[in-house]
Design brief:
The protein has one domain. The protein has six helices and no strands. The longest helix is centred in the C-terminal third of the chain and has 33 residues. The protein is globular and about 55 Å long. 8% of the residues are buried.
C-alpha cells in the first residue's frame, strides 16, 4: 500500500506555478514516512501531520460521543494546527530566503 501511495502522490500546483512550496507541501511525504514508522522524518517533512490526525480522530469521536467541551477542544486543536502550519511554513520560507541571499 505504501508503494502505491508513493507512486500516486499528487503534484503541487502552487509549486509548479510559483516555484516555491505551498503551506501544505510535504504532507504526503510526511504521511508515507509516518506509515513506514519514521516519526522524525515525518515531522521533518511536515510538522503538522500528527496534530492533523489527532484533530481528525477527535472530530470523528466527537461526532459519535458528543463531548461536553467539544467546542473548546476543537478551537484549541484548530488554532494549534494552524499555528504549527504557519510557523513551520514561515521558518521554511525564511531558511529558503537566507539560503538564496547567501549563495
Amino acid at each position: 500500500m505504501i508503494g502505491w501511495l508513493e507512486r500516486h502522490m499528487l503534484p503541487c500546483a502552487y509549486k509548479q506555478i510559483f516555484g516555491v512550496d505551498c503551506p501544505g507541501c510535504g504532507f504526503q511525504r510526511s504521511v508515507i514516512a509516518l506509515l513506514r514508522g519514521n516519526l522524525l522524518t515525518s515531522l521533518h517533512f511536515y510538522p503538522a501531520t500528527i496534530p492533523i490526525f489527532m484533530t481528525a480522530v477527535f472530530l470523528i469521536a466527537d461526532g459519535k460521543y458528543h463531548f461536553s467541551q467539544s467546542r473548546l477542544i476543537k478551537n484549541i486543536l484548530f488554532i494549534s494546527v494552524g499555528t504549527i502550519i504557519l510557523v513551520s511554513y514561515s521558518v521554511k520560507m525564511w531558511l529558503l530566503y537566507i539560503h538564496h541571499t547567501t549563495a
